[in-house]
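Subject: Protein entry, chain in single-letter code together with its fold tokens

Category: Structural biology, sequence-to-fold work with a learned token vocabulary.

Notation: Tokens come from a learned vocabulary of local backbone shapes, not from coordinates.

Start of record: The labelled sequence and token lines come straight after this line.
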Amino acid sequence: MQAERTKPVIEVNDLHKSFGEFKVIDGVSLDTNENEVISLIGGSGSGKSTILRCISLLSMPDAGEIYVDGQRMPLSQPSRKKNRVVTDTRRLRVAREQIGMVFQQFNLWSHLTVMQNIIEGPMCVKRVTRQDAIATAEELLVRVGMADKRNAYPSMLSGGQQQRVAIARTLAMKPRVILFDEPTSALDPEMVGEVLQVILDLADEGRSMIVVTHEIGFAREVSNRILFLNTGKIVEEGPAEQIVDNPQSVECQQFLANFK
């Protein structure tokens, strides 16, 4: 897939993150442009999911800068003596409204119906009227093939159905970019395809997305670019077909050999 290069929606510069003595991210820089899909691939523990959590500040980076739509995330400067903190909660809230996140484990509110899960964010965060929130939710449920489950609770749904609802909930917030953190890893094999198809449809609509996935064939199909990570560093990046079909680094070759 081809995407026109424009101003990055997300820009990450020299990101670092450690948990104790273990360095999870070691100087990662990346960007995502308008209407572009990039996939992060690599072995377990290579830092893929942590990058997404740092972009949304669900996890605080030790060093590095993150820009959302050209605006720097409001973080204090790195210090050996103090952990970094958010310096402006209003700016953080505005930036986070531009970022949608779809998690491995769906993270739906178990006490709310499908419809209630979707309308809660727009009503509480964006102050959308209940009537407008419901109208948008109904459109999104049709789009993800879940219109007949609007009154169901998450416990009544399969994993694939819950993930499709989670995607609809994210879309209801109208983010500039969507982060997918291994969206199919918690699903039974027969449910993977239905979720991947929804993401492919979003890519065809021109959505900006960063996808962490172990579905290599899917990454090749959906992505403009693929970034291969190993031990917290980007070892190789390039057009999806090039990375999957003709990897240059030994590390990437060895990783992809597991999927042949």
